[in-house]
Design a protein that fits this description.
Elements lengths: L15 E6 L5 E2 L5 E2 L2 E8 L9 E5 L25 E2 L4 E2 L4 E5 L14 E2 L4 E2 L9 H14 L7 E5 L1 H12 L6 E5 L7 H15 L17 H15 L2 H7 L18 H13 L5 H13 L10 H4 L5 E7 L7 H13 L3 E7 L13 H17 L2
Parallel strand pairs: 5-8, 5-11, 6-7, 11-12, 12-13, 13-14
Antiparallel strand pairs: 1-4, 2-3, 4-8, 9-10
Length: 382
């Protein structure tokens, strides 16, 4: 492998928006309903080659968005996967054209339950249709087509994004040459469904939820959403990581002992909950977590039928030893199903103390594994 120079940033970027479906040409959802219009927010990094053969599509996690790399004007906060995307980085934008798009049902520029329903002139709320994983794929396939890309060099996703990447590869293997799933699952366990159920209940029983029409009331279920985020964030970290970072340190607040924020971990979770309110919508949290609950592609005995015909397709499945939300057993299950179908799959279990959030971090073994896979992908082409 050639020695790469020091990795850099893609610099200033701007989120773009495109209308992919209209009322006259609506999106046909997996459950049978139609939806239109559908707008999608996305960002791109690097340059699409003349042959359009260097494109990589990024699928984001539950609370992610299109802003995966670089910086927005006036902000010092980089995109959520900035350590992975850029010139000289693992997804090297000197050679790759990287596309990152917000999910259908999201709240960061793509049509979702807080968008205005053209039939009523008010936000959809709980009248927004329930979604399936394949609906995410359908929308993003249309975006790829709109960008002039005939086949993707790779689809890469972590957590929920890895689940989307799996669905895309199983249903439309001709769309890509490689699929990367990181800290993902093909079927949530009862424990995972339980965590999401409690989070949704916290949101829906907030007095300001108003049956999902809280925007019309000029309020938001802030308490419920903050609690949902606080609980979820605990599951994204390992006990070892929490102990190393916080232990039993006091919060530093000068207050009498009681039921307030007495420990550093309590202060941290309170901060996570409050900052989450600034960037995420409660309805999107309900809808996207439910998509994850229902996802179970291998329940179909013919799930791999299309992929078996794609001799070119290669999979990489990565997991982290301390991830107890989507443990390595989740990834092993994916690998087992793919191997049983004699598909080309590589897997790697990475040592990390940081739990599920490891897929967002700059961990040498993790990045080296993905870099080697992508180098081979570039060499083999599409």
């Amino acid at each position: 492998m050639a020695t790469l120079p020091e990795a850099g940033s893609v610099g200033l970027v701007e989120t773009q928006s495109v209308r992919l479906f209209t009322e006259s040409d609506p999106l046909h959802l997996a459950a049978g309903q139609t939806l239109g219009p559908v707008d999608v927010a996305y960002e791109t990094y690097g340059t699409l080659s003349p042959a359009a053969d260097n494109a990589v599509f990024i699928c984001h996690a539950l609370t992610g968005d299109a802003h995966a790399a670089g910086f927005h004007e006036g902000s010092s906060r980089p995109g959520w996967w900035d350590n992975l995307i850029g010139p000289g980085k693992v997804l090297d934008t000197r050679r790759l054209f990287v596309v990152s798009a917000n999910l259908l049902g999201g709240c960061q520029g793509t049509t979702g339950p807080s968008s205005v329903d053209p039939a009523t002139g008010r936000p959809y709320g709980l009248d927004f249709p329930l979604l399936r994983m394949h609906d995410f794929v359908t929308v993003h396939r249309r975006l790829v087509e709109r960008l002039g890309i005939r086949r993707l060099l790779a689809v890469v996703g972590g957590s929920l994004g890895g689940m989307q990447a799996l669905e895309w590869a199983l249903k439309h293997p001709a769309d890509m040459a490689n699929t990367v799933m990181i800290a993902a699952s093909s079927r949530l366990t009862a424990m995972n469904i339980a965590f999401s159920a409690v989070a949704r209940r916290a949101i829906m029983t907030d007095p300001d939820f108003h049956g999902g029409q809280y925007a019309a009331a000029g309020v938001s279920p802030r308490i419920g959403l903050a609690i949902a985020r606080m609980m979820a964030h605990i599951t994204y970290m390992s006990e070892e990581a929490l102990t190393e970072k916080f232990g039993r340190q006091p919060s530093g607040r000068d207050a009498p002992l009681g039921f307030g924020v007495d420990f550093a971990i309590e202060s941290y979770l309170e901060h996570q909950g409050s900052t989450f309110l600034e960037r995420f919508d409660a309805l999107s949290y309900l809808y996207l977590t439910r998509v994850m609950d229902y996802f179970d592609p291998f329940a179909d005995v013919d799930a791999c039928a299309a992929a078996r015909t794609a001799a070119h397709l290669r999979f990489l499945v990565m997991s982290f030893e301390s991830d107890w939300r989507f443990s390595i057993d989740h990834s092993r299950r994916i690998v087992r199903h793919l191997e049983q179908e004699r598909l080309r799959v590589s897997s790697r279990e990475i040592g990390s103390t940081w739990g599920h959030d490891s897929f967002l971090l700059d961990l040498p073994e993790y990045h080296q594994t993905l870099r080697a896979f992508m180098e081979r992908a570039i060499e083999e082409g599409i």
